[in-house]
Amino acid sequence: MDKTPPVKMTDEYLVSKLRLVPDYPVKGIVFFDVTNLFKDPECLEEIVSRTAALYRDRGITKVAGIESRGFVVAAAVASRLGAGFVPIRKPGKLPFETVSERYEKEYGTDTLEMHCDAIGPDDVVLVHDDILATGGSSAAAIALVRRFSPRAVYANFIIEIVDCPKVATLPEDVEVTSLLRLGER
Asked: Which of 150, 142, 138, 148 minimizes the C-alpha distance to 59?
């Protein structure tokens, strides 16, 4: 029988589980891969628990996850909060009528889409993704959600890369939280 004591889930331990992939998806970019956090059941539980605790008393009715790594934690947090899950996807991936938002990223442009009936004016929405780096996809996701005029919008990330040059800034009136902040001086 394994008598190994449980690992203390410190920020440092979670960071140690990240995989850094140089030159992905293009040369010059260092990709922060969170899949090692997801495949470790204790790390995944810690991330979901910490995120749900941050929003437990905010009246969240929908959690919108940004494709694709944002889906993992967003769906689990939605379940913990008794909220619905809304996927924010790349073009052509949703089967019903959509609304879209185009955005700049550090190596080109892209588009995000949501179903046209995903959010209502009485919703309180948490937008979630794995990483906040340049801000492009996050700002686009928030703009997309705001088209539905929900009562409130929050944004949460597993990791914020603080010293990454921004291509877009997030709205000042949206409260942003990150479980881990990397690159602070």
From this structure: 150
69 is known as an active-site residue: yes
Among candidate residues 69, 89, 101, 160, the one labeled active-site is 69
Please tell me the distance from the alpha carbon of residue 88 to that of residue 67, in angstroms, as a whole number. Answer: 6
Closest CA to 124 of 80, 97, 102, 155: 155
- The full DSSP string for 111-137 is EEEEETTS--TT-EEEEEEEEESSSHH
Beta strands in 9-53 (DSSP E): 19-22, 30-33
Choosing from 42, 67, 104, 106, which is the catalytic residue?
Answer: 106
Per-residue pLDDT of the chain (185 residues; tens, 9 = 90+): 566 666 789 999 999 999 999 999 889 888 899 999 999 999 999 999 999 999 999 999 999 999 999 999 999 999 999 999 999 999 999 999 999 999 987 778 999 999 999 999 999 999 999 999 999 999 999 999 999 999 999 999 999 999 888 889 999 999 999 999 998 65
Opening angle at CA 119, ends 115 and 120, nearest 5: 135
d(CA 42, CA 157): 18
